[in-house]
Design brief:
379 residues; mainly beta; Lipocalin; eight-stranded antiparallel β-sheet; six-stranded antiparallel beta barrel; elongated; disordered N terminus
């Protein structure tokens, strides 16, 4: 009986323990997942795994690549080499006879780690944790603030030296640079799992996709000469006394006959491979904007008035001069950020400093698909 009673007591205790709810403390329940934040402005080297053909390539085509070099943030691996990246062509300029270059704008849609962990670039927030205030650059109070989601999260703008005779604009294995225009937030645990699964390996040696094969020259053939005949001289039969000689005419002979040979054909070489280079003639920009209340830029106070921003190229980094009445009042580095569409108005993005003053964080210009950010990609 004692054993039976003890078994019943143990069974009841076990049942009570199983039905007891698992209550987590506030600190345990609120523990956030560890994150890795790759700052805006980070450049990620990519190698194409599929070519972009010259004739059929068009806006909207998918671009496939993989990272050619790892990305490290604060001594921690963020993106291993060999991670897959997918993108899409936004604009394309083909080469011509007088302009042997192609130019692309590509936005990237996703990054896929070796474990299958996938991050959609469209899901990444386009601003820092603290969204900057937006104020109209002009005196018009109705100017709209910049939209929060019109920054392209990751983009590339390769400039390619390529012949108009080439059948590929970008070949297999061609390296381009993807620029993160907003911070990329990654799950640290999933990145670590991908690192454990991945194996160090050299970048795949991809065979060129060009179908061009050089045509060798032909030497041609010499002339064929058929010799002529020399002919025969006249035959003279002397006549008898008082009789003239008898002359039998000879044959005149024939000239040589020449059959012309073939002239041969020159070699037809293939054009050189496409090469990604820096644009030798980047566009220069000179954009006006207005400050309606005192503001600071790079620690320099600026009063209300009319100003100009001057820089060269589409980035990702540029030295920007701030001019007032033609004189430079500030010069500082900025990120040139590509936008999905044209800005509807000149707009200033500002940030509140600890002392209560405002600092200029961004500039957008009416009708332009780019903006200037002075945050240098900080998280």
């Amino acid at each position: 009986m004692r054993r039976l009673a003890l078994m019943i007591l143990l069974t009841a205790s076990a049942a009570t323990a199983q039905n007891k709810p698992d209550v987590q403390g506030p600190a345990q329940a609120a523990t956030p997942k560890p994150k890795i934040v790759v700052p805006a402005g980070t450049t990620v080297p990519l190698a194409l795994t599929e070519p972009i053909p010259a004739r059929s390539a068009k806006v909207g085509d998918t671009v496939y690549a993989e990272t050619a070099f790892p990305v490290v943030v604060n001594n921690q691996m963020a993106i291993p080499a060999g991670t897959y990246v997918q993108g899409q062509i936004d604009s394309l300029t083909r080469p011509g006879w007088f302009s042997p270059h192609a130019q692309f704008q590509i936005h990237f849609t996703k990054i896929i780690f070796t474990t299958g962990y996938t991050v959609q670039f469209q899901d990444q927030p386009n601003t820092n944790d603290e969204t900057p205030d937006a104020s109209p650059a002009s005196s018009a109070a109705t100017a709209p603030p910049p939209p929060a989601d019109n920054i392209i999260p990751a983009a590339a703008t390769p400039y390619v030296e390529v012949s108009s005779r080439s059948d590929v604009l970008l070949d297999n294995g061609t390296q381009i640079e993807m620029v993160l225009q907003v911070p990329l937030r990654l799950d640290a645990d999933k990145v670590a799992a991908a690192m454990r699964q991945s194996r160090a390996r050299p970048l795949a040696q991809l065979k060129s996709a060009t179908r061009c094969r050089p045509i060798p020259a032909t030497p041609g053939t010499p002339d064929t000469v058929i010799p002529g005949t020399p002919g025969t001289p006249p035959t003279v039969i002397p006549g008898g006394p008082g009789m003239p000689d008898t002359v039998i005419p000879g044959t005149p002979g024939t000239p040589s006959t020449v059959i012309p040979g073939s002239p041969g054909t020159p070699a037809v070489p293939c054009p050189g491979p496409p090469v990604v280079v820096s644009n030798p003639k980047p566009q220069s920009y000179r954009k006006s904007f207005q400050i309606v209340s005192p503001i600071r830029i790079a620690g320099i106070p600026l009063v209300a008035g009319n100003y100009e921003a001057v820089w060269t190229g589409t980035g990702p980094l540029a030295q920007v001069g701030i001019l007032e009445s033609g004189s430079t009042v500030a010069r500082l580095p900025a990120r040139v950020v590509l936008l999905r569409g044209e800005s509807p108005a000149d707009t200033l993005g500002t940030r509140a400093d600890a002392n209560g003053s405002l600092s200029l964080q961004s500039l957008r210009f009416a009708g332009e698909k780019l903006a200037l950010y002075f945050d240098q990609g900080t998280e």
